[in-house]
UniProtKB/TrEMBL annotation:
Signal peptide: none annotated. The gene is recG. It comes from Hydrogenophaga pseudoflava (Pseudomonas carboxydoflava). It catalyses: ATP + H2O = ADP + phosphate + H(+); Couples ATP hydrolysis with the unwinding of duplex DNA by translocating in the 3'-5' direction. Residues 478-638 form the Helicase C-terminal domain. The lineage of its organism: Bacteria, Pseudomonadati, Pseudomonadota, Betaproteobacteria, Burkholderiales. Its EC number is 5.6.2.4. Coiled coil: none annotated. It holds the Pfam family DEAD. The keyword Nucleotide-binding applies. This is ATP-dependent DNA helicase RecG. The keyword Transferase does not apply. Keywords: ATP-binding, DNA damage, DNA recombination, DNA repair, DNA-binding, Helicase, Hydrolase, Isomerase, Nucleotide-binding. Residues 283-455 form the Helicase ATP-binding domain.
Length: 703
């Protein structure tokens, strides 16, 4: 049978069109918002005599000589004379067309960097074309582009995109007025979006390139304000949509699980734990699903807060699920929590169910039945918890530990597929926990639809960890120190780096260190832990270590988060220069959990020059200078910038292209207020604004 003819003729895109699509340049507005990386000044012709060494200039003159030389390499040499001076143009790669345009006697316009030099002025590989033609009145924009998309093609596309795009005002008058006030504080007059864009694409020749480069020019300010407003609006919209959802209200009851748990805890809660506990309890009482991030430094005691929240859900007759990113973490991290809750659940005829990837089928089937019947009041596990076969009877609270380790897709899955028949169309409350605190500006900008609770105090009696940055050449001293710690009955972690693209190297690194330490520390049990080991073996090693039988644990970064062994007092991190700042901080947080004075040794391996790279040095310095996770996060943000700090994967939000959260706080504050006002008073304008700026991305933002 012949193929049915296609009803819609397929329009083939040309190569540059495809390249534009790849860059996200689809709509006119996308092109209008595609701003130059830098500008070239082709508005003036300079006399060669006046051109300074190193200056990029445009000159016009007559070719007086053309020559091909073969020493030291084949090259085309052209002498240009503009009447004021001469200049040698030098091309190492050239075509017959070069020779033709640059023939002796031809008048040409040339643009490039002038070099002074002993033999007179020269330009390497200048741009050139036949002289004549009008000089442009504006600077020439140079756009970010790709190999398949020629600059000239893109320039034309931007010009027509800019002409056609609807750039009419979306900001209502009161919002414009408040923007004008904010900008006045920044000494920038208000420009319209069209003015701002036209200016940035084609700035006049008398512009301050400095103001364009540091993005302080009024045109930039307008653009940044617009972008931040769009981002805040879309986040507020997402929050509103969430607020329209329903969740079961959860209450504590007199003499209930929550109260009992408080009674059996071996310590008193810190003031900060009490405060965040109340914030969560208030959310749980509402009929709107909680969407809260609990952040607190490593060791600040988030687990007990999670346990108390779980107790409230169970008190109200609902189920609670707890998820950790890996099996070993789930086990380690929730051991205490289960230790507290299980004895209290038993008299109620309730149980704790485990769900992990490595479970035997029989055990898993058993667990699934407990979950479906509701007998399991608490479900603990890894991603296995959000898999399809899992049917809750009535899940009302989901708690995700180390939430930054889960991707957006997993968080979405959690929200959409949890619940259970008794929940109906409702959604469970969601509590996310993180030990990587988000600096305030970042939270304001990226988590506007998330409520944040912060534990800003450590439990009492902790001795601060002393951090030392030590070169690998002093490794033997470090090993001596381990010997001394173990002799005192203390335990030691030794962490080797994880290099993602090469698990093999990792492993050899960790196994070599394991062999070395075993040999140098006779009589000490030295264990090895890495991600390729079977789960059972991992668990066995971990239980030897947490039981205090193993003196030293050599591991790759599998212990990064969550592990709690208070007797461990020394953490050695090998190749510390390869780790990120927040990762180093997380690792360090594995010690200093008991009363003993703890230390962290950051072993670095200098490069051939005996030195460390700039950012590595900054990271290690920050680690040695502070133990405060918030300060670390602030510096991490400073070193890496928000894009890398958040990682698009975990934020789920398109990162800002124009605004910079480190410097644009005033605009961000304005955008927050303006967004709230616009959504209430000018919903149509708000819609238009978000559509213009985010287009199809807006949906993604709601994830
Ligand atoms: P994290 O916030 O890193 O998850 P954990 O919840 O693992 O921290 O708590 C770290 C350690 O502090 C645990 O051993 C925990 O039992 C203990 N802890 C938690 N709260 C308190 C408190 N208020 N007083 C004393 N110890 C506490
Ligand atoms: Mg924890």
């Amino acid at each position: 049978m012949p193929d049915a003819p296609s009803t819609t003729p397929r329009k083939e895109l040309s190569a540059p069109q495809k390249a534009m699509h790849k860059l996200g340049l689809v709509r006119d507005i996308d092109l209008a918002l595609h701003l130059p990386l830098r500008y070239e000044d082709e508005t003036r012709i300079v006399a060669l005599h006046d051109a300074r060494d190193g200056e990029v200039v445009q000159v016009e003159g007559t070719v007086t000589k053309q020559d091909i030389q073969y020493r030291p390499r084949r090259q085309l040499l052209v002498t240009l004379d503009d009447g004021s001076d001469t200049c040698t143009l030098r091309f190492f790669s050239f075509y017959p067309s070069h020779q033709k345009t640059l023939a002796v006697g031809a008048r040409v316009r040339v643009r490039g960097e002038v070099r002074g030099g002993f033999m007179g002025k020269t330009m390497m590989h200048p741009a050139f074309h036949a002289a004549g033609g009008e000089l442009p009145e504006a600077l020439t924009p140079v756009y970010p582009t790709s190999a398949q998309l020629p600059q000239a093609y893109l320039r034309k596309a931007v010009v027509s995109g800019l002409k056609r795009a609807d750039l009419s005002e979306t900001l209502p008058q009161p919002v414009l007025t408040s923007l004008e006030d904010t900008l006045r504080g920044l000494r920038a007059p208000l420009m319209s979006l069209r003015q701002a864009l036209e200016y940035l694409h084609h700035p006049g020749p008398d512009v301050s390139l400095a103001a364009l480069e540091d993005r302080s020019h009024p045109a930039w300010q307008r653009l940044k304000a617009e972008e931040l407003l769009a981002q805040q609006l879309s986040q507020l919209q997402a929050k509103r949509e969430r607020d329209a959802l329903r969740a079961p209200p959860l209450h504590t009851s007199a003499g209930g699980l929550h109260e009992q748990l408080l009674g059996v805890l071996p310590f008193a809660l810190t003031a900060a734990q009490r405060r965040v506990g109340e914030e969560i309890a208030r959310d749980l009482q509402r009929q709107v699903p909680m969407h809260r991030l609990l952040q607190g430094d490593v060791g600040s005691g988030k687990t007990v807060v999670a346990a108390l929240a779980a107790a409230i859900a169970i008190d109200s007759g609902w189920q609670c699920a707890l998820m950790a990113p890996t099996e070993i973490l789930a086990e380690q991290h929730f051991a205490k929590l289960i230790g507290w809750l299980e004895p209290l659940l038993e008299p109620l005829g309730k149980r704790v169910a485990w769900l992990t990837g490595s479970q035997k089928k029989k055990q898993r089937t058993e667990m699934l039945a407990l979950i479906a019947s509701g007998e399991a009041a608490l479900v603990v596990g890894t991603h296995a918890v959000i898999q399809d076969q899992v049917q809750f009877k009535n899940l009302a609270l989901a708690i995700i530990d180390e939430q930054h380790r889960f991707g957006v897709a997993q968080r979405l899955a959690l929200r959409s597929k949890m619940g259970g028949p008794e929940l109906g169309a409702g959604e469970p409350h969601l509590l996310m926990m993180s030990a990587t605190p988000i600096p305030r500006t970042l939270a304001m900008s990226y988590y506007a639809d998330l409520d944040v609770s912060t534990i800003d105090e450590l439990p009492p009696g902790r001795t601060p960890i002393v951090t030392k940055v030590v070169s690998d050449s002093r490794r033997h001293e470090v090993i001596e120190r381990i010997r001394a710690q173990v002799a005192e009955g203390r335990q030691v972690y030794w962490v080797c780096p994880l290099i993602e693209e090469s698990e093999a190297i990792d492993l050899s690194n960790a196994t070599a260190t394991h062999a070395e330490l075993s040999q140098l520390l006779p009589g000490v049990l030295v264990g090895l832990l890495h991600s390729r080991m079977p789960v059972a073996e991992k668990k066995a090693v971990m239980s030897l270590f947490s039981g205090g039988h193993m003196g030293v644990l050599v591991s790759t970064t599998v212990i990064e988060v969550g592990v709690d062994v208070p007797n461990a007092s020394l953490m050695v991190i090998e190749h510390a220069e390869r780790f990120g700042l927040s990762q180093l901080h997380q690792l360090r947080g594995r010690v200093g959990r008991g009363a003993a004075a703890s230390a962290c040794v950051l072993l670095y391996t200098p490069n051939e020059g005996g030195r460390l790279g700039e950012t590595a040095r900054e990271r290690l310095k920050a680690m040695a200078e502070t133990n405060d996770g918030f300060e670390i996060a602030r510096r991490d943000l400073e070193i890496r910038g928000p894009g890398e700090f958040l990682g698009a994967r975990q934020s789920g939000a398109p990162l800002l292209r124009f605004a910079d959260l480190a410097t644009d706080t005033h605009l961000l504050e304005w955008a927050r207020e303006a967004a709230a006002q616009m959504l209430v008073r000018f919903p149509e304008a708000a819609e238009r604004h978000v559509g213009r700026w985010l287009g199809t991305k807006a949906e993604y933002l709601k994830a």
